[in-house]
Amino acid sequence: MTCAEFQAVLAYIIDNGGNAEQQEHLRQCAVCSGLVSDLKYIAEQAKLLVPMMDPSKKVWDGIKSSLEREGLVKDSARGSLLGSTPLTRWGPANWLLPVAAALLVAVGLLYYQNRTGGQQATLQPSSDNAADASIQAAPLQSASMGDVQDQQVLSEVAAHIPALSQSYRQDLQRVNAYIADARGLVTRNPDDEESRQALMEAYQQKAMLYKMAMRHSLP
Amino acid sequence: MRPEKGELTQAKKTLVPGLTEADAIDRAKQGDSESFEALYGMHKRRVYSLCLRMTGNTAEAEDLTQEAFLQLYRKISTFRGESAFSTWLHRLAVNVVLMHLRKKGLPEVSLEESLEPQEEGPKKDIGARDNMLAGSIDRVNLERAIESLPPGYRIIFVLHDIEGYEHNEIAEIMGCSIGNSKSQLHKARMKLRDLLKTSRTERATRS
Amino acid sequence: MTSMPRSVLWVLVVLAGSATLVAAAENRKEFHYNLGPHAAVSVMNQFGGVTITPSSDSQVGVVALLRSNKVEVDATQRGGRLELRTHFLQNATPDEGRVDYELRVPADTSLTVRSTSGPISVQGINADMTLEGDAANIVVRQADGGHIHAHTLSGPVRLEDVAHGDVEVITVSGPVTMENADGRMFSVNTTDAKITYNGDFGDSGEYSFANHSGDIDVILPASASVDITATSEKGAVTNDFPFHALTHTAIPLTQGKSFAGTANAGSSSVRLRSFSGRIHVKKK
């Protein structure tokens, strides 16, 4: 076997040693054995190369802002969902809740339809005109019927999935503030389609929240 | 692929006091920002080094490191723990780099590469044993030599000899045959051998 | 032979026993079904992720990883419908009750997925889907033609490469991100979450992004064909896209609080509305 013949197949035999003829050539040829030794030495040294360089700080800054923009990170102040409170089996369905959710949407519809007609809403709270600030200050006080339903929702959540109680309470406050602002818009602009649309969207938020809470009380 | 050098089992790795890697992964799936940062801190160096060695360019390597971690965080909910987290992340980073290089026009490994003997073969050397490299390579020179490799050679060399991928894995990643992977690796090592010998000679001349 | 101290032996026995219990408690269940074309699959989960990808054949494959032996998976098939439900057996903590589902389904399978904590991830499914979770991180990728309903309270929602269907996203505070997403009727409604849209709004769609106090960011390419109105009662509205400004509109136009304009043929209608959030439209 010549050196040229050996080196032509070296790429494919360097790991397993080759056949008897190739191994014999390697034993006898100083040039090829020196070559194989060098190549194996390079491979061994490469294995020892450890990562030494850190990326600059702007890499993490870029990652962080993308994570925030994409909503992949959550505010840890909300707390973990996986508390250690034991879960009981789901209790009997609370049929008041789906009724409440339907009534809530109906209240919203009735409210804005009546405002469109320039009439006072039959369910309008008496303090409505002065209300924006006070409503926002007491966020759980929506229309009187809504108050009761809000408390019922929060009680159901506390009973069936207490780890989410605080989260539901905060979300309910936010949604009620949305409803209050939207109602204020409709009050100021009763003929404005956009304002009425905003109120519908605010009530849609609340209906969804009720629906989610209701599911936890169903078997 | 061989395990990461000196790798601990996932459960035991501690990122900050009281926070193991397994916990950080679970919390990151829930969107916990501190856990994201902890995982980044643990793996950034290896991912960045991989990107830097494969591209040879610090700006590109930083962009690719950022992209690899963003993809990790987007997909972390799909990590099931069948392999080590670092292996999973590593594979993801390799794919990110390769996609980037393909967009730039990566020199594809030829599917019809002929097996030609090296033109500048050691058969021309005289007294080859005196010129052997053993014991004469230091890390800095080796890193420099790797940076000087043509991109196609460098990628295969980094994947196989540094990162520990097997030829069948490289063939799958690169879309070439196992034979081509071996051939390219051999050429990369031959080229490095030449570069390192030249460098050694230059140093000897200067001193 | 050296004898080990008795106390050390007991520790080893206890550790070995605990390890066995832990290994036995977390278990994996697999199911396979043939539901036929246009099947429907629902997953009702409390804690744990649900990941759905398309299968390469007409089968439905399910892998469920149960965190403990205090939870079961009930799987019920009726004709072309499959229901998977996580079932708590006894007092179980959320951690013990966790089940992670991985499903492979034909791309024309309609989906209903609920998971309180999530995450919920659906990729490559071109059928109707309803995805709900109180705090679930919901991601939908590569969906073509199906109607998508995504509802969360605080979980973020991400839509990527979504086209040709109707989309409804409702979330109280979970950020909504859309990349390369378009549809016929496309509605995003949040209370105080950020809404980010990066795309061209497709062709002939109707889009409505509304929130109470979150910001809305829209990034458009120059080729976008839109008829856009943007208004915020109390937040700033800014735009650096070269729209053809409209002056006679249904909304009152106030500098810095609203604008209206068209780009190219104006084929898609886009409504951006916030009460106190900032709205920013910019060119890609």
Largest sheet of chain B: 2 strands, antiparallel
Number of helices of chain B: 8
Question: How do the SSEs of chain B run, as a string of H and E?
Answer: EEHHHHHHHH
Low-confidence stretches of chain B: 1-12, 108-129
Question: Can you describe this structure?
Answer:
The complex is a heterotrimer of chains A (219), B (207) and C (284). Chain A is mainly alpha-helical. Helix content of chain A is 66%, strand content 0%. Chain A has nine helices and no strands. The termini of chain A are far apart. Mean pLDDT of chain A is 73; it is low at 76-98 and 115-144. In chain B, a hairpin with a 2-residue loop joins strand 1 and strand 2. In chain B, helix 5 crosses helix 8. Chain C is built from one helix and 23 strands. Chain C has a 23-stranded mixed beta sheet that branches. Residues 16-24 of chain C have low confidence and may be disordered. Chains in contact: A-B, A-C, B-C. Chains A and B meet through helix 1, helix 3 and helix 4 of A and helix 2, helix 3, helix 5, helix 6 and helix 8 of B.
